[in-house]
Design goal:
It is a single chain. The protein is of the alpha+beta class and 554 residues long. The chain has a seven-stranded antiparallel β-sheet. A hairpin with a 7-residue loop joins strand 11 and strand 12. The protein starts with a strand and ends with a helix.
Length: 554
Amino acid sequence: MPKILLFRAAHDLSARLVSELSRAGYDVAAPESADVRTVLQHQPDLILLQTDVRTLDCCGLVTQLKGNEATAPAKIILLAEGGPLERSRALDLGADDVLSIPFEPAELFARIRAQLREKAPDDRLRVEVLDAKRKESEAEAALAAIVAQKETGKRRWIALGVFTALALIGVGVAVRNAQVSRKSNASLALQLENLRSEILTQGQLLERAQKSREAGNQELTASVSKQLEELRTESADLRKQISTSNGASLSDLDNRLKKTDSRIGKLENESRIAQEIVRDYSDSVCLIYAIVGFHDRKSGARLNFAGIDANGNPLADEKGQVIVTTEGGTRPVYLHVFGSGFLIDTAGHILTNHHVLQPWWHNAQAIPVPIDTFEPTIVSMWAYFPGKEAPLPVRVGGLSEDFDLGMATVDLPESHPRPVTIDQQAAISGSPVVLIGYPTGVEGILARLDEPAIKRIAQVVGDTTEGLVQELARRKLIRPLVTQGHLGVVGPDRLVYDAQTTSGGSGGPVFNASGKVIGVNFAILSGFSGSNFAVPISRAAKMVETSKSAQAVR
């Protein structure tokens, strides 16, 4: 009998659903607590969760359930107020399905059956995997028992086997040392894409721009414009229906039209606010470009590529793994990292994330070498402001260990951008927000250029990422991307909103409708582009005050 949990449903709806689902043959429960622990206790096949999508009150729970290996298999159907826009928003949060309230029981049952049918093959596969692991454990135990029984009288053979194995290992080590001079020169399984980002041909530039365009079409759509288009179409359809209707349906259509037109007016107002914020503050948001190098923690030797082929690419072994060394070699192994930051005063202070100023902070998986062996260090870091040809050297001014916040300083020229205004008042759930930053870094900038422009740039810059960024700045092509959305969860340590972004947008400012910064963007929920996170600006303001006081003392 499939198990269903009913979360956060209104009393009348909860009682009705429990009764109807039980009669339909489901094992139904409606616990008061809606959390991961409750799901682990009940082990449901499916969860029905009533929510108000406009406030994103379900975001935290859905994220936790889908991010937990033990609860992720449970299907989630959201029961939400609203129409197509609210349903699409709910799906972006990570739900498996959404049903608008009010709904017909027959439709709900059909959707439940569809989700359970979809879940069944995965359940069978999980059972088979667990069974295979159990059999493997039993086989290992049996083998151990056999070995133990036959150990007497076999020790000579075991000793001979060990000796032979050691001899083979010795031969392997000798061959390996001959290939890379010494064991410390290691051929590491590095992330080719990251390390080869320094080598850029014209074809690679075009390929990167195309990939970024495709990603942008999927993740960074101008959501407000799209919503306005859909609502205006809906408004026109309702007007047509009103012109040919009468009686009871006319009143319902008229109410729906008023609601639709009200939402159109609201979105148009939000779009106007966003345009004003872009006009006043987009030049205050900089692209932060860091080059990270690596040194052996024991010897201090720099990590280099072992060699470069005829096309300028690092030499790789027969498995396609880049060959690197700490002795000799050609060019250094560098990682190119992009993030966002924004100017907060005329003294040159920039707010961003800790992981932008130290890309390896709580983010070892993003570093293509084992950081327990090789220490990452910042070789150079620059801030590129829109409309400015010359980058500004970045100095780290302060780093928070409690929140993903960092402060840097630059020496501002006489003609500098306007600093943003900070608002430490409590943010309001459901209010509109505007996010400015550089998602996907340099690829996002390339994606907005046409192919002839990219070819002209490629002819000038040669084959390095550093040269590419400098040329984009010289041509004044470095501009941030702007997205709009609404605040969902407002907590003391984080804000959750649906203004879309992706990697590279870290450190960007989150503006409220008054044009003031209320948060510092720091994370996206991978796989669910409708959920992004910021540190409340009140946390950053405290760090800024501390850092400025320390600088004044020095």
